[in-house]
Design a protein that fits this description.
The protein has 192 residues and is mainly α. 70% of the residues lie in helices and 3% in strands. It contains seven helices and two strands, in the order αααααααββ. Strands 1-2 form a two-stranded antiparallel ribbon. The longest helix has 42 residues. It starts with a helix and ends in an 8-residue tail after the last strand.
Length: 192
């Protein structure tokens, strides 16, 4: 009878953990393992009080083993969810700031978000940095090239700018042409 009740208890706790994980709001999973196991400990004590004295040592170990298992499952879920949420926040920041005139400040801001994130390993931080900085450059370049009229920049000027400060002037000067007595920079519309 005790084993059957224990199996029911364990099954109910498993369902409760699943329901808790499903009800967790995005970005709010950080404390889930401690919160769930805190409640589990209280419920396990209540169950333990009903165990016959001769079986207490055996079921104490079983309850402890179940708690470790639930904590492990909750921790894995929380870590994965917090990492997912963090990555989305970083992607949102890149998308929102890609048109900034100060890409160095944006890179520093995004880089800090990545480096301070406790849910990424060092390898993941490197991977996320490379991907997000590349995405930042692509979005910024696309916006600069697709601007209307005189605001549009030549693709090669944008590429050189994004390479880290390689001067665009030498390329622009070499690509300039005479047009009715005016020097017209490459990428700029001509009048005439």
């Amino acid at each position: 009878d005790t084993e059957r009740r224990y199996q029911e208890f364990k099954w109910n706790e498993s369902k409760a953990l699943d329901e808790t994980m499903r009800a967790t709001e995005p970005g709010q999973a950080r404390d889930l393992p401690e919160q769930f196991t805190g409640g589990y400990t209280e419920r396990a004590r209540a169950f333990f009080e009903t165990v016959p004295e001769s079986l207490k040592q055996r079921y104490d170990l079983k309850l402890f083993d179940a708690e470790r298992s639930f904590y492990g499952d909750a921790s894995a879920f929380a870590h994965k969810e917090q990492k997912r949420f963090s990555l989305n926040a970083i992607e949102d920041r890149v998308n929102q700031t890609a048109l900034s005139g100060d890409l160095d400040a944006v890179r520093a801001d995004v880089g800090e978000l990545i480096q301070l994130n406790p849910y990424f390993t060092s390898i993941e931080k490197d991977e996320v940095s490379r991907k997000q900085f590349g995405q930042l450059d692509v979005l910024n370049a696309k916006a600069r090239i697709e601007r209307e009229g005189d605001e549009a920049e030549h693709p090669l000027d944008v590429i050189e700018d994004l390479r880290g400060g390689v001067e665009a002037a030498p390329r622009a000067a070499a690509a300039s042409q005479e047009d009715g007595g005016e020097v017209v920079e490459a990428g700029q519309p001509t009048t005439g």
